[in-house]
Structure formats: C-alpha cells, structure tokens
Design goal:
The chain is α/β, with parallel strands linked by helices. It is built from 13 helices and 19 strands. Bound molecules: zinc ion.
Amino acid sequence: MELTCWGATCNVTGSMHLLVTAGRQVLLDCGLFQGSWNEAFERNRTLPFSVNDLHAVVLSHTHLDHCGNLPSLVKAGYTGPIYCTPATRDLTAIMLRDAAHIQEADAEYINLRHRKKNESPDAKPLYTQADAERVNRQLLAVPYGTWVALGNYTRFMFLDAGHILGSAIVLFQTEEGNGTRQFCFSGDLGRSRPRILREREFVEEMDYLLIESTYGDRLHDPVDQMQGELAEVITEAVNRSARVLIPAFAIGRTQELVYILHGLQQQGVIPDIPVFVDSPLAVDATEVYRVHAECYNDEMRRLIFNHEDPFGLKRLNYVREREASVAINQVKGPCIIIAGSGMCEGGRIRHHLTQSIEEAKNTILIVSYQAVNTLGRRLADRQSKVKIFGEEYKRRARVKILNGFSAHADSTELLEWVTAGTRKLKSH
Ligand SMILES: [Zn+2]
C-alpha cells in the first residue's frame, strides 16, 4: 500500500491523495487549490499524476477544496467512476456548475481589464460548465455502510463523517501479502453532537489512518452555546431596528443557520422578522438538504416526520433572482440577510455590505473561518475602512463574531475520535 499526498499538506485547500493498493490506483478527493489567480490556475490545471492510470476516484464530501477540481480531471481524460454518497452526488452537481460559472465569469472579467489596457485577452477559465456537466455523469452514488469492490483484492465503504450533508469517512480493506489491511481516510470530520446531522461514526480497527487536522491546534466554543449568543445578537439588532448581515457558505452553514433561527422563532425567543437567504446556490443546496433524511439526527428526523419544515420560517425568503436581491434594499425595519460568499470575496453579500456597512446601527455577524487577505478577515479584524468593488467604505456597522459554528472537529474532538474509535489502531 502506497499513499502520495498531492494537496492539503501544510495548507487547508486542494485535498488530493493517490492510494496505490493491490495494483489499483485510487484518487481520494480532487479538491481545488485556492490562492491567487495565477498560482491557483497553474496548480489546478497541472495534475501531478497520470490520469490514464487511475482506476477510480473516491470523494469524501462536497466542499470545493475536496471536489472542486474534478472537472480538470475529467477534462484531462479521466472517464472512470467517481464514487460518493447519494447526498454528495446531488450537492456536487450544483456545486460544480456554480464553480464553473465563477471560473468563466472571472476569466471574462480579467479579459475585460486586459482589453482596457490594450493587452491581449488571453485568460481562460480553468474549466467550463460543460466540463462540470461531464463530471456529473461520472458520479456514482453509494449509500453509507455498503462495500464496493475495486478489483479482486480491495474494497471500500463510506461511513458518516457528520461534517456536512453526505460527508463520509472512507474505509478501505485490501488483501496484501499475508493478510488483510485496513486503511482509513477521515475526510473532514464533524463535531461531536452536531446540530442537524448524524454523529460521525467511529472506526474500530485500522492499520493506517490519514486524518484531517484543520483545527488540530485549537478549541471551538461549545455547540450549545451558539443558540443563545445568536439570539442575543438578533434581539439587540431588532431593538435598534437594524439589519443583520451574515456572510455564509451556501452549503452547510446557511442551512444550519436557518434551522437555528427556525427553532428560536418557534420558541418565541426572537420575533418574526424577515429573513432572506440571498444566494441561488444556497437555494439549490437547501432543496438537496430537504430530500436526504438519511443524513439527519433523531431531532431532525422527528421534525421531518411530523411534516415540519426545518428549513422554513414564517417570514423566510429564498432569493434566486437578481431583481429580488436588489429589492431587499427597500425593506424597512429589522431583517436578517444570509448571503454568500462565506469570506465576502464573491457573491451577493458584497452588494448588501455596500448598502449597510456605513450605518452604525447595523450588525455584520461573522460565523465562519476567514482566511487572511479576504474582505471577511478585514471585517472580522474590525478595520475602520474597507474596499468593496474597488470603492472605499467606512465601516461603522458593528461586527460580532460567533466561533462555535464550525463544522470541523476541534483538537479535543479529533483526539476523541482517534482514541475512542481506534483503540485497536496498530502501529506500523
Ligand atoms: Zn469540508
């Protein structure tokens, strides 16, 4: 058994690992490396292995840093199966379509700037929507807990990782030499007692483990604490008749926020104020969330089987069209706007920020990780002036940060998973 890590080492993007076992070459994830345009383009376009030698791709989950470079792989000639769970298949289809659209739009924007400077317009998208559609035809859905044979000597199974809808731990079993060996790829691991998803599963026996460690060096606030803190932020905003702007990732964080707001309104903890989910991708992703009951914990299943809609609120508006997004500017009184992107580097949140950032009564609520050199990080750092679409804005709106929303296990939760689940981990 041989493993080569081609990404997500010493950084957190571009997860991609090549496993060679019993004569089979299996690619684990094919994530997008995210960085400056030129560096990212070159790194994502140039695959460091021979695509023709691959027998299979196994996908842990739908985040772009794990699945976002699949169109490049297919474009390079890979025609084989891409195994994933049913929910991951549905989410990946919409995620890659959106990613391709962004690639095309970015290339167009760069070319426009080149033309203005009388330079030749030579920027090309990393991949197109047609490439993304080809990936969708190669996705093969496998339910959790089902063995899949890769040749005569190797098989794998997905176990629930409790990270985002459809996320999986991948357990390989292979006949090698004089016995059977188990190799586990953790993918991204969720927290203990997640709010809506099933708890991550434990692996009781393995010989080799490849584990993520995004938050291997820190602790999150407890999951339970978040509800009260969110209620406090919203109640204060209502008292000031203010807007609450929440930059959020379209997949996972948005649905979780809506679910918590649903609970808070049901219990009468916060008043029924208008809530807008202003992101076409989030609207599509929520439709996928509605149909995958197999991924939920008991509480969520109870709601679903009682015909309650955990992703609906009395005054919730899912906004797909651009005109409807612009119309939110006319809303008087307090409201909550959830929009992408999560780090404010793209998406409609930037338009809402231009409308609300200079008013002191408004709140910008940060609920996710903000990478350095992003607008989201500058807001989280409470910088007094920020540039949006090249224009400078004075930040008078208050900034609140809630850290407990992470979908990644923290250091204690990672250790808990390793020790509780791998008591029989053998040392090699
Ligand atoms: Zn992830």
